[in-house]
């Protein structure tokens, strides 16, 4: 219900406001005055928000389960920044201009960082704070690389500076269709891995006794995280905190069972992302504030509260 | 190990290896500095440079050296010293080899301060001042949020990471709000650059160094005791909370002022203390060697950026790429050693 409400709001709010009651009318009726605005701009944007939100939320939950670490987040651990670095490189070196190539490069960058993060934080458990610190250091390195690339390539700077904040504004039907298959596959793989991941939470031996194959499950989750984060970043830039906070909020509702947690994350994360996007459009009138800024500014204090409250993280 | 005792119950321990490494690094820095002054549109041989520095050059040489090239070199040295020292202090405070101002949000705070000035339009003096202010305010915020009956390592780290994520978002937003010309100016500043630095850029940092270097070095023995744990340090007569506050304030000030002078030169604060510790083979805190190594790294990186690479690249590109590579290697080895 909340998802539906946010989606309607996302279509309704903008430089030309449309009353929520007219949204359905505008969506279906070819002759309605708002048909073009809705179909060409707001609908793709809303769909992209739904997809990217679901991708980030599920990726965050899967990562927290995989590394057994409550502070795991694709943004904080540098996976989104890895995708950003790969795209920046491709833009500067090969003159990449959007399109499917961008998605593939993002996937490549995300894959490299995901495997790296897992090598550092998986298996023998690193403490949450140490893993977060390693991720933050990696983030800093990747961002300084991205800014160096942007410095060398003025034309790249002009386009990348908007993309690196994290925004849904560039969405069109093409973008949505390009990332849709990647995110869909990623979501399916993650959902399929929920059961073995549950077993893995008990430890490798117990998981094997329960019939799960730890290596296969981990590989599956890593692939899923790569697909989800890479595609989401390619479409709307690096966005932080969505993947961190949503699983924590959802866990209060569903408990730790991933078979419930992952689907609920896929529903609630888009609410947060689209909500932030709508908020950005309302606050920034007549222009807009990028959604990445809103999630950083709203999510940051929540992250601080989480850190200061939770006993396990502090130790 | 040599121990020098004075009648006034003051004693100084000197490790020969630390002395040797420090001296070699200093000599190297001076050598690179002389070469750096000699390089440019008007090339000068090292002997010419030394003659001019000691006051025996022609008026033209005098002008080139003291007004054009020396300020850049001195700014680089001062920034490197400040970052190396601050990095060593941060790493000791949070007790983690990754605790550096780039990671903990102080650098991002300085960047926010600078970007605000770029966005509203202001002189470069205003930009420097605002950057310093941004760094200090961020440091204060992080301290206040993390404070709970004293500041402990990991709460500081996590609050710093949270702040840096928030500020990265804000910085990205500010970058989109300025016209492209200002955006490239901001980008150049954000990368960390020594181009066209004059005496007025270096002066505030030099003044701060004159005060803060002795002050921080005086804290070093107490800092070494806190490595035994807070309780043991308190038992040995160290006021742990006050010490942390003092060290944090000093290090934040150094980072903020060096960002004001040259922009946030990345990863010098991370790598210099590591390199110093490896070279001197000393356990624990090495403040002075870290400062010397930091100065050396910065000046060498600036020369590499100027001479070895095409185009006039800013120093931050070189330290960022080298520091990033070092960081990946560090993560891998720390992981293998089970320290992460």
Would you give an account of this structure?
The complex is a heterodimer of chains A (315) and B (340). With 315 residues, chain A is mainly α. Chain A has helices at residues 2-12, 20-28, 35-67, 79-94, 99-121, 128-152, 154-163, 173-192, 194-200, 204-209, 214-236, 242-254, 258-283, 291-309, 311-314. Chain A has a single domain (48-314), classed as ABC transporter involved in vitamin B12 uptake, BtuC, CATH 1.10.3470. Chain A contains 15 helices and no strands. In chain A, helix 3 (35-67) runs parallel beside helix 8. By secondary structure, chain B is an all-alpha fold. Chain B is built from 14 helices and two strands. Chain B has a two-stranded antiparallel ribbon with strand order 1-2.
Write the layout of secondary structure elements.
The complex is a heterodimer of chains A (315) and B (340).
Chain A: H1 2-12, H2 20-28, H3 35-67, H4 79-94, H5 99-121, H6 128-152, H7 154-163, H8 173-192, H9 194-200, H10 204-209, H11 214-236, H12 242-254, H13 258-283, H14 291-309, H15 311-314
Helix pairs in contact in A: 1-3, 1-13, 2-3, 3-8, 3-11, 3-12, 3-13, 4-5, 4-6, 4-11, 5-11, 6-7, 8-11, 12-13, 13-14
Chain B: E1 2-5, E2 11-14, H1 16-38, H2 46-53, H3 59-94, H4 101-104, H5 106-120, H6 124-146, H7 153-177, H8 180-191, H9 199-226, H10 230-235, H11 240-262, H12 268-280, H13 287-308, H14 315-336
Antiparallel strand pairs in B: 1-2
Helix pairs in contact in B: 1-2, 1-3, 1-13, 3-9, 3-11, 3-12, 3-13, 5-6, 5-7, 5-8, 5-11, 6-7, 6-11, 9-11, 12-13, 13-14
Write a concise synopsis of the structure shown.
The complex is a heterodimer of chains A (315) and B (340). Chain A is built from 15 helices and no strands.
């Amino acid at each position: 219900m909340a998802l539906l409400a946010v989606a309607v709001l996302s279509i309704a709010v903008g430089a030309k406001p449309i009353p929520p009651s007219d949204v359905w009318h505008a969506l279906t009726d070819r002759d309605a005055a708002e048909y073009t605005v809705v179909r060409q701009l707001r609908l793709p944007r809303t769909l992209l928000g739904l997809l990217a939100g679901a991708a980030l939320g599920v990726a965050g939950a899967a990562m927290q389960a995989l590394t057994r670490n409550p502070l795991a987040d694709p943004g904080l651990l540098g996976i989104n920044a890895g995708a950003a670095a790969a795209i920046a490189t491709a833009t500067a070196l090969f003159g990449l201009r959007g399109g499917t190539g961008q998605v593939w490069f993002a996937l490549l960058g995300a894959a490299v960082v995901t495997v790296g993060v897992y090598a550092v934080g998986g298996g023998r458990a690193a403490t949450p704070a140490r893993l977060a610190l390693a991720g933050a250091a990696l983030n800093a390195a990747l961002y300084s690389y991205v800014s160096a690339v942007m410095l060398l390539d003025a034309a790249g700077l002009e386009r990348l500076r908007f993309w690196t904040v994290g925004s849904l504004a560039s969405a069109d039907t093409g973008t949505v269709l390009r990332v849709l298959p990647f995110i869909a596959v990623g979501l399916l793989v993650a959902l399929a891995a929920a059961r073995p991941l549950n077993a893995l939470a008990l430890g490798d031996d117990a998981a094997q006794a329960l019939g799960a194959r730890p290596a296969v499950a981990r590989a599956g989750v890593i692939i899923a995280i790569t697909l989800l984060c890479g595609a989401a970043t390619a479409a709307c830039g690096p966005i932080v905190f969505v993947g961190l906070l949503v699983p924590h909020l959802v866990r209060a509702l569903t408990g730790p069972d991933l078979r419930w947690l992952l689907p609920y994350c896929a529903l609630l994360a888009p609410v947060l992302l689209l909500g932030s996007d709508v908020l950005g459009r309302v606050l920034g009138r007549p222009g807009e504030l990028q959604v990445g800024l809103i999630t950083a500014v709203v999510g940051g204090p929540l992250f601080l509260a989480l850190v200061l409250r939770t006993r396990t993280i502090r130790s | 190990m040599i121990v020098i005792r004075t009648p006034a119950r003051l004693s100084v321990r000197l490790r020969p290896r630390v002395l040797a490494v420090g001296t070699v690094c200093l000599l190297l820095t001076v050598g690179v500095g002389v070469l750096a002054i000699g390089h440019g549109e008007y090339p000068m041989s090292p002997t010419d440079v030394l003659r001019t520095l000691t006051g025996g050059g022609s008026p033209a040489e005098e002008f080139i050296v003291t007004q054009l090239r020396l300020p850049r070199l001195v700014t680089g040295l001062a920034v490197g010293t400040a970052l190396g020292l601050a990095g060593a202090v941060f790493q000791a405070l949070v007790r983690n080899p990754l605790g550096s101002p780039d990671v903990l949000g102080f650098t991002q705070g300085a960047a926010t301060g600078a970007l605000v000035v770029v966005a509203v339009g202001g002189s470069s003096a205003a930009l420097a001042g605002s950057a310093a202010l941004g760094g200090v305010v961020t440091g204060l915020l992080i301290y206040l949020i993390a404070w709970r009956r004293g500041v402990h390592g990991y709460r500081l780290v996590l609050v710093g990471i949270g702040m840096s994520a928030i500020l990265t978002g804000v910085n990205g937003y500010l970058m989109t709000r300025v016209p492209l010309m200002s955006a490239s100016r901001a980008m150049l500043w954000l990368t960390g650059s020594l181009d066209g630095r004059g005496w007025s850029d270096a002066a505030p940092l030099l003044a701060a160094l004159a005060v803060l270097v002795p002050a921080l070095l005086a804290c070093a023995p107490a800092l070494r005791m806190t490595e035994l744990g807070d309780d043991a340090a308190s038992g040995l007569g160290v006021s742990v909370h006050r010490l942390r506050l003092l060290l944090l304030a000093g290090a934040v000030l150094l980072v903020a002022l060096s960002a004001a002078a040259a922009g946030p030169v990345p990863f010098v604060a991370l790598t210099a203390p590591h390199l110093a510790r490896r070279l001197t083979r000393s356990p624990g805190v090495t403040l002075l060697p870290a400062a010397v190594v930091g100065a050396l790294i910065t000046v060498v990186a600036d020369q590499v950026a100027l001479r070895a690479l095409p185009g006039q690249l800013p120093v931050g590109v070189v330290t960022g790429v080298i520091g990033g590579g070092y960081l990946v290697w560090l993560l891998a080895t720390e992981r293998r050693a089970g320290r992460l």
